[in-house]
Amino acid sequence: MSGSSSFAARTYRDDAVVLRTHKLGEADRIITLLTREHGQVRAVAKGVRRTSSKFGGRLEPFMVADLQLISGRTLDIISQAVSKGSYGQQIAAHYDRYTVATAMAETAERLTDSDQESAGAQYRLLIGAFSALARGEHAAELILDSYLLRALSTAGWAPSFTDCARCGNPGPHSAFSAALGGAVCHDCRPPGSPSPAAQTMVLLAALLTGDWPVADASDPANRREAAGLVASYVQWHLERVVRSFRLVERL
Ligand SMILES: [Zn+2]
């Protein structure tokens, strides 16, 4: 221990990705960040909306930066930002990438709002997805669906697209249930469960494991069907997150 001053004790440094920003007062912004070491952080960037701002364009959505922050009672304050990688510009230049990145950032914000434990893993996953998106490695919607499945898995809700998600009966199975966790066998399928095409289940499994040769070769019809199932899976689990927040607030 090197007898740190009270200023040093309140200052910390971390890599962070900008999830969202909103205006505060005349020239400031509140920046919602996902950091490598400190989980989700909401911090004020003072004067960031002035053209002369020392932050330049480094605190825009999807930017990654090495930040220096000062702990505050409710919000932290960003005192320094050094850009790391330029995913943000390459994403913002393409509308499809921008909308996909927005959905990813929103999901990451929801998943790390209360769960600080997996925040480091969520940070790495999001950075990897933004980087793939910025480089245009795969179709944007495939990167999104792969990210969503893996982000939910990281949060503790890993789906199954082969064996039955409820009883473990070896697959492949032809029914899908978001509530039960993915593919379900004939005995477990709730009435009215959708029966996606076999190739759609194969695509979902590939997106979950990152088997890109299989995912890249998939048909548009299977991609559309997979996207709908991923959306229902995400929605089902995120609604539960929101509900559990409400319960926590009432206690
Ligand atoms: Zn079953």
Automatic annotation (TrEMBL):
DNA damage listed as a keyword: yes
Pfam family of the protein (one): RecO_C
InterPro entries membership: ARFGAP/RecO, DNA_rep/recomb_RecO_N, NA-bd_OB-fold, RecO, RecO_C
Coiled coil: none
All copies of domain DNA replication/recombination mediator RecO N-terminal, residue ranges: 11-84
Keyword DNA damage: yes
Keywords in alphabetical order: DNA damage, DNA recombination, DNA repair
UniProt function note: Involved in DNA repair and RecF pathway recombination.
Annotated family: Belongs to the RecO family.
UniProt protein name: DNA repair protein RecO
Gene name of this polypeptide: recO
